Amino acid sequence: MKISVIGAGYVGLTTAACLAEIGHAVCCADNDENKLNLLRSGQMPFFEPHLEEIVLRNCGVGRLQFATTETAVIGAEAIFICVGTPPLDNGDADLSAVANVARTIGQRATGNCLVIEKSTVPVQTGQQLKRQLQLYANKDLHCDLVSNPEFLREGSAIEDFFHPDRVVIGVERQEAASRMEEIYRPLLDLTFQCPVHPNCQTKKKLAWMVTDTNSAELIKHASNSFLATKISFINMVADLCEAVGADVTKVALGMGMDVRIGPAFLNPGIGFGGFCFPKDVQAFVRIAQKSGCDFSLLKEVENINKRRIEHFVEKVRQELWVLRDRKIAVFGLAFKPNTDDIRFAPAIELVRMLVSEGAVVSAYDPQASERAKAVFPDVHYCSNPYEAAEGAEAIMIATEWDEFRNLDWDRIKRIVVRPLVVDGRNMFQPAEMNKRGIQYIGTGRPSSFGGDSDSVAVSSQELRTVSN
Ligand code: UGA
Fold first, then answer.
1. Non-local CB neighbours of 148 within 8 Å, separated by 6+ positions
2. Which of 38, 174, 259, 446 is 20 to 30 A (C-alpha) from 64?
3. What atom of ligand 1 comes closest to residue 275's alpha carbon?
């Protein structure tokens, strides 16, 4: 199929590259000429595992091209709208980019065309979009509107595209759903081989859900808000664990064994960040408000999340007292591992707070330092964790990069001023770190568990095996 994807950001570029990979002729559009030129020269505007190889391969065989929106929409059989919907000051999603695209489609697209909203948008945006299209449509255009929310996670977006749990299709006419099935057909085939794991065959059957556009739009916001609620919930449980001397990792393990709860998204820490959860929770509160529903639960989810960094910094204050002129190493700047994205990253808020208290911050992140430099030019950015730890009085772990799992702690102990690790992501076992002579303060866990924290973990695993 001849497909256009409007927006070459995280969602758009990933979607465009993967649609090309499954055989479609794809034109990916953006209004930023610099970005288009960068992509045409084979460079990626951001880091996402495996994206570069898929973009280059498909550009090489002519299945993927880059153009302006005005050019891309001409002659397209399906147009995916993947432009940004950033938050306005009042928390609403800014839909101006979506509206502009709708106008361009109306004026320049022709024939029978699927217009697919993939950007995260408030419920009933589809209806507005349809009105705009009708208003601007030229006489040669017949549009079918589809809501097909994206559930890709940064850092594993390519894998998520090829192995989705579900594909949600919101339509007004069954015919549009059939055409969407045509687009995704390779993924529905159980013998499909994903290019990221070439030897794997899609094992699980993909859940294909066809519904109305309003419900599809709500599924996206409700899913992100629910996941954010899970995180704030476990973060409060972590605080309670700290207060009473329990271990939140054990509590989460036990809770997650209940299939109704499940183990995912129960990792406590310094809060959720990124460009999706914070803005989507905020937008969902506003959507509910405008419809006369007070979603006070979500307001508290936001409040709990906002308090996480202060709580994290307080742990260091408890140890170092005054932070002015004290050297603190921050490990991790991205909002989560495997991305260079620092938008609404808790680590960035952490650096802001440390700097404002006069601490001397040295930071290391495997991917995100360049982007962080633009926000805090005066922070000392290091090329490895050891350089960051040199002379530090505390190490604060803000992002759980795999690289941090195998650090040489003996080396670190020799170069720091004080062997203090405050871990906002619970990457290590407290007892093991204490054995290494490191004072370790995790999240929701006793600093020392009489040395048998690990054996408790093993026995709960054993119990599980027995009960299975
Ligand atoms: C999220 C959703 O997971 C995707 O399904 C969705 O498509 C995407 O938003 C979007 O709306 O575009 P993403 O923002 O890439 O994806 O990141 P997640 O992996 O969901 O993590 C979000 C934040 O929650 C991160 O800051 C992460 O550190 C935090 N988190 C996650 C926790 O603190 N604890 C957990 O147990 C899980």
1. 80, 116, 117, 118, 167, 168, 169, 170, 180, 216
2. 174
3. 14
Q: Which residues are catalytic?
A: 276
Please tell me whether residue 46 adopts helix, strand or coil conformation. Answer: coil
Ligand 1: residue whose CA is nearest its atom 2: 153
**Nearest 5°: CA angle at 265, between 263 and 267?**
90
Q: Sheet of 394-397: strands edge to edge?
A: 380-381, 360-364, 327-331, 394-397, 420-423, 439-441
Placement of tokens 């594993």 in the chain = 156
Amino acid making up residue 368: A
- What is the reported pTM? 0.93
CB-ligand 1 contact for 233 (6 Å cutoff): no
Question: Which atom of ligand 1 sits closest to the CA of residue 160?
Answer: 5
Indicate whether residue 208 lines ligand 1 (CB < 6 A): no
Q: Is the CB of 14 under 6 A from ligand 1?
A: no
Q: Is the CB of 277 under 6 A from ligand 1?
A: yes
Q: What is the pLDDT along the chain (468 residues), one digit of tens a residue?
A: 999 999 999 999 999 999 999 999 999 999 999 999 999 999 999 999 999 999 999 999 999 999 999 999 999 999 999 999 999 999 899 999 999 999 999 999 999 999 999 999 999 999 999 999 988 888 888 999 999 999 999 999 999 999 999 999 999 999 999 999 999 999 888 778 888 877 776 666 789 999 999 999 999 999 999 999 999 999 999 999 999 999 999 999 999 999 999 999 999 999 999 999 999 999 999 999 999 999 999 999 999 999 999 999 999 999 999 999 999 999 999 999 999 999 999 999 999 999 999 999 999 999 999 999 999 998 999 999 999 999 999 999 999 999 999 999 999 999 999 999 999 999 999 999 999 999 999 999 987 534 444 444 434 443 343 333
Residue nearest to atom 37 of ligand 1 (CA): 265
- Chain position carrying tokens 């419809």: 291
